[in-house]
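INFO  loader      accepted 1 record
INFO  loader      residues=81
INFO  predictor   begin
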Amino acid sequence: MTAEELQQLIQQGLDCHHIELQGDGRHWFATIVSPDFEGLRLIQRHQKVYATLGQRMHTDEVHALSMKTFTPQEWQANASH
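INFO  predictor   done
INFO  writer      dumping tokens
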């Protein structure tokens, strides 16, 4: 899977204001900014992202995904990105 394909999958399921992906095709690191994360705990945010990938996590198309998730307000407050 390419970074563009992974980005499209995530953006289809989430309203992403910003997304950055780095990886080797199976192991990925993502920074995702979405208003969909408002009011959610960290684990709930990650579950929301995993839900956008569906079976791809189970079929090993995406072997590993680590991520940082932010609301737009958190992202703006963290101006050191």
